[in-house]
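[step 3/7] fold_predict: job queued, chain A
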Amino acid sequence: MTSKRIRVLVADDHPMVRAGLTATIDAEPDMCVVGAAAEGQEAVSLFRELRPSLTLIDLRMPVMDGVAAIQSIIGIAPAAKIIVLSTYQGDEDIYRSLKAGAITYLLKDMLADELVRAIRDVAAGARPIPQAVGRKLAERMRHTPLTPREMDVLRLVAQGFQNKEIAAALSIADQTAQGHVKSILDKLDAHDRTEAVAVAARRGLIRFE
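[step 4/7] structure written:
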């Protein structure tokens, strides 16, 4: 019977969340939790050891975050079935997770029955995307992405750096720094630096931990 069950690996840094997910999954006759990880690197190690049918993973984890863990797992097994379960609702979080190789992205406020159904669907080969997540992903597709250098500048803006300080930190000209900030404001549809940081945080481009 065990060999026919959906064997789930759970990865979340909160003990109570891991316990709750384990209880919910183990209560189903056709699935069971075969391992639980408290951080990303452990999730990768357990995946390599256990080869579960499906991995349920959070984004916010110590040592290695969820996206990096997804990439590592996909590197081990390109056909691995991974579901992200997160409180993060930013369109960039969703985009990065799916781009890394996750099958779908679920929010932690969903009902237990919905989670169980999603696990069954993914295990069966489906790619169920909740409507709210689909809308966020469509929104992300409409945005012009920031370049890697603009992301560097944005992180410094979020730390309160002014243009001259950004230029010095990145070894670029003052005018270049000013141009990057203007481009960031345009792409984020923000009127000023404060609004740009707020928009970036909401979308998951930057994180304040």
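[step 5/7] annotate
The first strand starts at residue 6 and ends at 11.
The mean pLDDT is 92.
exit 0
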